[in-house]
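Q: I'm writing up a methods section and want to include an example of the input and output format. Could you take the sequence below and give the corresponding predicted structure tokens, formatted cleanly so I can copy it straight into the document?
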Amino acid sequence: MAENVVSTQRYKILAALMLGGIMGPIDASIVNVILPTIAHFFNASLATAQWVPLIYLLTISSMLLFYGRLGDIWGYRLIYLIGLGCFVAASLFCGLAPTIYFLIVFRALQGIGAGMMMAVPFAILTAVFEPHERGKAMGINAISISAGLALGPTLGGLLTALWSWRLVFLINLPIGLIALLWGLKVIPDLKGKPGRMDFGGALTAFVSLLSFLFFINHLQVDGWSLLSGSALGIALLAGIAFLYFESHLPDPMVNLDLFKNRTFSLGIISSLLNFASQYTLVFLTPFYLQRVMNYSPEKIGFLMTSFPLAVMLVAPLSGALSDKFGSRRLAVLGSGLCAVALITMAYLPLMATAFVVSWRLALFGLGNGIFQSPNNNAVMGSVPRPYLGVASSVLGTVRNVGMAVGIAFAGLLLYLSVPPEIIAREYLTGSDAFAFLKGLHAAYLFGAFCSLFAAYFSFKQAKGV
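A: Here is the clean output for your methods example:
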């Protein structure tokens, strides 16, 4: 397909994917900022309001594999555009939601659309771009994800101040409609391996991922309990059933032979570990800035953009370099820098300046930008053309699972290291602040170990990749 698409058309396709793709990260990061406002507006408890971001993440993560295989059968263009249309419509419903419970339902619908949008872009880019420029394309595409994460917190506060929290969702309408019309015009009809849908595999994968993510979330909030243990048990049983289906059916949803490819399997593991370390940093640092440094939400949002801005600057360059020199060494270098950044975060002083924090965040962003594009390039380049949709959705799935794992274990280590009454306080001083820093130390080091293992698995990939 790539040879039939002129160079200018390929980049128009990339731009269309980026315009649609920026909305998912924005909506993932923007809602956390306005969640207290939403809870107050509907007079809802925090436990109820937490389902507004949680249902979005759960719906996306548990359905990505299904959408990826559906894209291989029906076509990546169709799945992407249906998802984009669903996302826009659900955004309208979210903006008009009359109660918190309607908002949660509409966020689930929004997650369904976002999952379809996230499942197939890597497959489209891999099919459209030649191998010698695929890394560059993935690096440029990473700009939209980083820009969305960077814009989300600031945009959420600004739009809410301009009118209402409802504008946070309604702003998706003009952007989404333009992206939909543009996508209809330029995205080509691309398909993978034809066949029938494996509904047994789809159902067991959904139950396993949903239960595991629920277990991770519940473990973070309430620790080990009968409910969290039951969720883990269901996740394991459904996971075993999924593996049985995929290894015995003639036309499985996920071809397990893909994982026999060293580059694919180790790249997937590295990606999961990288996102676990990334969300350890993203989740914990605002607590340090608010409770120890007493920074305002606006200043915290501004300072946290040091990370995604660094990714935006370096990701296109690292992707282009991976086309020329291979992905393995760049992925190792990037993961190593992420580990160094998290180690420096573990030893933050009690009262640090904004610059001291921002250069550490930027260093992590530099490492993450160097790692992500080459790793994605290596993973997608190792997959046969008929399975691009599944491979793209596997990457999306491990990204979301890695986020959940990073947040859960970072929170768990913090709660194990710091008395709950200290964590509950809004501002910390003296010995309480030192105790909180001790907990951060343990959690940040956990993130550093994740990055070191990501570097190790990247190094073990096939040479020449």
